[in-house]
């Protein structure tokens, strides 16, 4: 069962912009194809997220969630600040080939594997963070640590990670507003 809309409703308010990133819907066969091509397995709850069919917000297209710029001014080149102050949004990746390359699982997954040598595919990323959440070949959600070029277990499912990151994004937004 998909919990995307419930989680978005719980943590997001009018200070956020939520955008689907592709005009096309995907099917389970698209997800299966990416899994096969990249040699990974996506967790069941992430597949539910990708296949959600909400009329207004379509996660299968990839979600891009950000605090509106009038609330949180975007960092500029050479800006200095605490690490959290650059993390103004999150996005998920999609199996939809019509999405932007930087959100498409087949493209980002292939690049990730080639660049890191790690058999994992990014599924959720904080904007402004070099680390990301991935799924490995066994369907486990792991967190990529770019400084050490390793993946670490999260011991959480996709809904727990999405909820954690939405909650923390909301907290950062409130901190930024004050």
Q: How many DSSP E strands?
A: 7
What general outline do the C-alpha atoms trace? globular
Percent helix, as a range, is 25-40%
Kindly report how far apart the N and C termini lie: 37 Å
In the CATH scheme, what's the topology name? SMI1/KNR4-like
Query: How would you write the strand order of the largest sheet?
Result: 1-2-3-4-5-6-7
Average pLDDT works out at 89
Q: Please state the structural category.
A: alpha+beta
Give the domain tally: 1
The major sheet is characterized as: 7 strands, antiparallel
Radius of gyration: 16 Å
SS strand fraction: 15-25%
CATH class: Alpha Beta
Q: Architecture, CATH level 2?
A: 3-Layer(aba) Sandwich
Oligomer: single chain
Low-confidence stretches: none
InterPro entries: Knr4/Smi1-like_dom (IPR018958), Knr4/Smi1-like_sf (IPR037883)
Domain Knr4/Smi1-like: 28-163
Protein name: Knr4/Smi1-like domain-containing protein
Pfam families: SMI1_KNR4
How is the topology of this model organized?
Layout: H1 4-11, E1 16-20, H2 28-38, H3 44-51, E2 63-67, E3 89-92, H4 105-116, E4 120-126, E5 132-136, E6 141-145, E7 150-153, H5 158-177
Antiparallel strand pairs: 1-2, 2-3, 3-4, 4-5, 5-6, 6-7
Question: What are the salient characteristics of this protein?
Answer:
single chain, 178 residues, alpha+beta, SMI1/KNR4-like, 7-stranded antiparallel β-sheet, Knr4/Smi1-like_sf, Knr4/Smi1-like domain-containing protein
Description of the structure:
The protein is an alpha+beta fold. The protein has one domain: SMI1/KNR4-like (3-Layer(aba) Sandwich). It contains 5 helices and 7 strands. Strands 1-2-3-4-5-6-7 form a 7-stranded antiparallel beta sheet, with helices on both faces. A hairpin with a 4-residue loop joins strand 5 and strand 6. The protein is globular and about 45 Å long. The chain starts with a helix and ends with a helix.
